[in-house]
Amino acid sequence: MEKQFAVIGNPIKHSLSPAMHNAGYETLGINAEYQRFRVEEHCLEEAVKGLRALGFAGWNVTLPHKEAIVSFMDTLTPEAEKAGAVNTVKNQNGRLIGHNTDGKGFVRSVENDLRGLKGKKAVLLGAGGASKGIAMALAQQGMNLHILNRNPEKAKTLVQIIHSVGGTATFGEFEPGDWLENLDLLVQTTSVGLNKEPFPFSLEGIDKEALVVDIIFNPLETSFLREAKKLGCRTQNGLEMLLYQGALAWEFWLGEQAPLDAMRQALKNQLFQGMFYKE
Ligand SMILES: NC(=O)c1ccc[n+]([C@@H]2O[C@H](COP(=O)([O-])OP(=O)(O)OC[C@H]3O[C@@H](n4cnc5c(N)ncnc54)[C@H](OP(=O)(O)O)[C@@H]3O)[C@@H](O)[C@H]2O)c1
């Protein structure tokens, strides 16, 4: 019987997940289909009941439902529990298991390049939802974090949360500083660049050995990443994080390794189809 998967969110029209997962099923000859559904906030509970009743084997959850859906789960994995948010649901004979692959997806996307994370230094720009997931996952891997946010109160709160789970983190002003001189990983998690606007400060003086990541994937290269590349750093855009959170959801649902190359290619094809791609 064909297995049904989906992603729910609002808006959802531009989600790249259906293309990524369906390409994976095709590559491995898996009899499954992945759809997308727009779900308004007040309809979330009904939508969850509907997906369960229709026998969907699993679904991804994106904004604005990641936190609200927690209360409709029968159980949570430790990852979802820690994040206080669910991005992946598995329907196990009618029992809904809430999981979160965002943080680990990010870790997977950088760990090969960095050859281990423990004891290394990461600077995070931004302290919103995405930053929280990434920060918690990196802290759990033993990285030392420094978090800068336009609104410093939010960076401070995030640092307190990290301390409460035994992690190491400090926070500072959203501006250039000594932190540029000695770091292993720099992650740009703010929404600056989504509309091709320039990043508000220069990375001049950055440690050239650092891996620099922007989690934005459209455009594929933000002005932030362009500057980091020009200054001699290795760079990575947000496509890899998207890919690995999807691959981990795949593994959670199907119990086998996801075909990464086919899924990555599908993401790129979808982006280059013009509708999404911002030159
Ligand atoms: N690659 C992936 O798989 C993936 C996954 C999730 C999200 N993302 C991307 O990550 C970005 C953030 O998402 P989110 O869910 O974390 O959003 P969010 O919770 O709304 O947080 C937005 C963050 O951006 C900062 N910000 C916004 N405008 C700014 C400006 N003009 N100057 C400085 N800082 C500014 C905010 O700072 P304040 O607190 O000071 O307002 C906050 O830290 C988006 O671009 C999203 O597309 C990518």
Strand order of the largest sheet: 2-1-3-5-6-4
Helix and strand succession? EHEHEEHEEHEHEHEEEHEHH
- Principal-axes geometry comes out as globular
Number of domains: 2
Mind telling me the CATH class of the largest domain?
Answer: Alpha Beta
| CATH T-level fold name of the largest domain | Rossmann fold
DSSP summary: helix tally:
9
**Unreliable segments (pLDDT under 50, ≥5 consecutive)?**
none
Fraction of helical residues: 25-40%
Q: Could you give the distance between the termini?
A: 42 Å
State Rg.
19 Å
Structural class: alpha/beta
Bound molecules: NADP nicotinamide-adenine-dinucleotide phosphate
In CATH terms, what is the architecture of the largest domain? 3-Layer(aba) Sandwich
**Sheet with the most strands, sense and barrel status:** 6 strands, mixed
Q: Kindly state the number of beta strands.
A: 12
Overall description:
- The mean pLDDT is about 95.
- Helices cover about 35% and strands about 20% of the residues.
- It contains nine helices and twelve strands.
- The chain folds into two domains: about 5-100 and about 240-270, 3-Layer(aba) Sandwich (Rossmann fold); about 105-235, NAD(P)-binding Rossmann-like Domain (Rossmann fold, 3-Layer(aba) Sandwich), CATH 3.40.50.
- The strands form two sheets. A six-stranded mixed beta sheet has the order 2-1-3-5-6-4.
- With about 280 residues, it is an alpha/beta fold.
- The protein binds NADP nicotinamide-adenine-dinucleotide phosphate.
- NADP nicotinamide-adenine-dinucleotide phosphate binds near residues 150 and 241.
